[in-house]
Design brief:
The chain is of the alpha+beta class. Helices cover 49% and strands 15% of the residues. The protein has three domains: 109 residues, Acyl-CoA dehydrogenase/oxidase, N-terminal domain (Butyryl-Coa Dehydrogenase, subunit A, domain 1, Orthogonal Bundle), CATH 1.10.540; 105 residues, Butyryl-CoA Dehydrogenase, subunit A, domain 2, CATH 2.40.110.10; 154 residues, Butyryl-CoA Dehydrogenase, subunit A, domain 3, CATH 1.20.140. It is globular and about 80 Å long. The two termini are 16 Å apart. The structure holds flavin-adenine dinucleotide. Belongs to the acyl-CoA dehydrogenase family.
Length: 386
């Protein structure tokens, strides 16, 4: 086993780290204060990031993307965790994997412009009545002579305001779910309110309403009835990269700040880092982050080997999200009153961390998946020689 990073990987990480520090970090405060990112500033970071060649890095190079392996991608995603969601979306893009199902005319209309950053898409699965139970959706599409007619609604759709089209899951039969590419501006498609959240300031989360929206046959992504599989396949990768790896990055970032503070802040005539109870918070954080990081890398490696990483990703989702929660909680404690005060970003990191245990499948749902796999296949499944 060789755990060493190649020179190319080290260079890639340094490039992303430098870009985030120089171009994105300075915008964080403003986004937090205003609650949005200015369009002109979004364009600047988008253009600069594209020059680095990492836009749409998850998409194969032959389709115009970055062509990164799963391991290389998560090495970048960990760095992305060092800044806020909306800045990463605008700079590096958020090209959801189901779009790779585009064929024929769909490629020029939806896939290529998205990979090139000329169009943006969001994924719309959740409804007010169907969250964890993603198969319990009510949105449905009925076949007509000219295509489909879409009816229903979605909520909590991240990045909806910036998106030009949506990957929408809809029932196309009693049990069948299909996925459609639904352009903004179609008749009967209206955008509802921006649902204000505890954290992730600057990223809009929208309601979508479909009232007899006419869809052409071309709007169907992948095969009819395969939408649930498509969505779940895509979310698997999203969970590993955008939740697992970013949670590790966020926790590492917070730990760096916690460590600096423990070394600087003095009480009772000595550094607070000299107190064993503070040391324990640092030590537990380092241990847990390190474990989460290796779980992320291992699951990514499995993907690159063509192995089934679903249960490993579920474990990553739970462990990385919960590690982040514990680390930011300790950070508030180590910073004392300054951890709670808005003069420092610690309280923001605390708020932003909470959603990691909820979106892309809650901790409870993933624990259920893990337990079912263990019970069916045996605990030895996770030993390395199996
Ligand atoms: C900020 C944010 C961004 C989001 N972005 C998107 C997006 O871009 N696109 C999209 O489609 N969705 C998005 N979502 C939706 C998100 O994925 C769901 O909120 C999540 O899947 C949970 O669904 P729910 O909120 O309906 O909770 P519910 O499913 O109602 O769950 C409520 C509670 O019940 C528990 N529970 C439910 N079922 C079980 C079970 N079988 N066993 C044990 N416990 C259970 C849950 O774990 C949870 O604790 C976003 C949500 C938020 C808050």
């Amino acid at each position: 086993m060789n755990f060493e990073l190649s020179d190319e990987q080290k260079m890639m990480i340094d490039t992303v780290r430098r870009f985030i520090k120089q171009e994105l970090k300075p915008l964080e405060e403003e986004v937090e204060e205003k609650g949005f990112l200015e369009k002109a500033k979004a364009e600047v970071i988008h253009e600069k990031a594209k020059e680095l060649g990492l836009y749409a890095m998850n998409i194969p190079a032959e389709l115009g993307g970055g062509g990164l392996s799963a391991v290389d991608r998560i090495l970048c995603e960990e760095q992305f965790g060092h800044t806020t969601d909306i800045l990463i979306r605008r700079a590096f893009g958020n090209v959801y994997e189901p779009i790779l199902e585009c064929r024929g005319e769909q490629v020029a209309r939806w896939l290529t412009p998205t990979v090139e950053g000329r169009r943006t898409c969001a994924i719309a699965i959740t409804e007010s009545g169907a969250g964890s139970d993603a198969q319990g959706i009510k949105t449905h599409a009925k076949k007509t002579d000219t295509g489909w007619v879409l009816n229903g609604s979605k909520h909590f759709i991240s990045d909806g305001e910036w998106s030009d089209f949506f990957l929408v899951s809809a029932k196309t039969g009693e049990k069948d779910i299909s996925m459609f590419m639904v352009d903004k501006g179609l008749p009967g498609f209206t955008i509802g309110k921006d649902q204000k959240m505890m954290g992730l300031r600057g990223t809009p989360h929208l309601e979508l309403f479909f009232d007899n929206v006419p869809l052409e046959p071309l709007a169907l992504l992948g095969a009819e009835g395969q939408g649930f599989k498509l969505a779940m396949g895509a979310l698997n990768v999203v969970r590993l990269a955008q939740v697992g790896a970013r949670a590790v990055g966020k926790a590492s970032h917070v730990l760096e700040l916690m460590n600096e503070y423990a070394n600087e802040r003095k009480q009772f005539g000595q550094k607070i880092g000299d107190f064993q109870m503070v040391q324990q918070m640092l030590a537990d954080s380092v241990i847990e982050i390190n474990a989460a990081r290796w779980m992320v890398i291992h699951a990514a490696w499995m993907i690159d080997q063509g192995l089934d990483a679903r249960t490993h990703i579920a474990m990553v989702k739970v462990h990385a999200a919960e590690t982040l929660g514990r680390v930011v909680d300790r950070a508030v404690q180590v910073f004392g009153g300054m951890g709670f005060c808005k003069e420092l970003p610690i309280e923001r990191y605390y708020r932003d961390a909470r959603i990691y245990r909820i979106f892309d499948g809650t901790s409870e749902i993933h624990r259920t998946v893990i337990a079912k796999t263990v019970m069916k296949k045996g605990a030895a499944l996770f030993e390395l020689n199996r």
